[in-house]
Amino acid sequence: MKLVxxxxxxDIRREQIADAVIDEIVERGLRSVTLARIAERTGLAIGxxxxxxxxxxxxxxxxxxxxxxxxxxxRAGAMFDDPIARIIDVIAFTAPTSxxxxxxxxxxxxxxxxxxxxxELAADITATSLAGVEVIRSLLRxxxxxxxxxxxxxxxxxxxxxxxxxGFSFSSALFATPLCETDxxxxxxxxxxxxRGAYPPLDKPSxxxx
Length: 210
Prior knowledge:
Layout (H helix, E strand, L loop, with lengths): L9 H19 L6 H8 L3 H8 L3 H18 L8 H10 L6 H16 L4 H25 L7 H24 L6 H17 L13
Helix pairs in contact: 1-2, 1-4, 1-6, 4-6, 5-7, 5-9, 6-8, 7-8
C-alpha cells in the first residue's frame, strides 16, 4: 500500500517559521536572520521555506512583522462596558507581561529600529502606529464623553497615551523579565483618572468660567 504524505496546514507552517524568526531576532538581532538560520531553527529545508515565501528572506520578515501585529491585537481580549476599564485593558494588553509577549515585543522593537533606514518597513511601521493612535483616540472619546474636551485636546491626550504604550514597549525590551501586570494596570488606572480630572464635566462650568 502506498503511503500518502501527511498534509501540513500552510498557515501552521508559516506561523512555525515566524516563531523561528522571532527567536532568532531575540537571540542574535534582526539583521542576523537568514534562510539558513530559519531552516536550522525549524528543521525545514531551505527549499520548503522558499515554497511558502519565495526566494528571499524579505517576505519572511514582512510576514513575521504581520504576525507580531496580529498577536498584539488578539491580546485585547474581551471589551468591558465601562469605557475607562475598556481603554485601560486595551493599553494594558499591549504591555508585555509574559515571557512570550516579551520576546515578541523585543522583535517588534528591532523592526522599528530597522525601519529608520528601511523605507518599505518604515511605511508598515507608520501605518501600524497611526492605526494604534486612532484606536486609542476612539476609546478615549468614549471615556471622556461626559467631559468638556475639544478635538485638539482629545488628539493630544490620545497621542500621549500612545507614547505610554511605546514606553512600556521599549522599557520591556531592555528589561530581563516581563513587566509586572499589576504595576501596568495601576499606572494606567492612575493616568486615566488624572486625565479625566483635568477636564470639567459637561454639566458644570469650567474653572476659568469661560
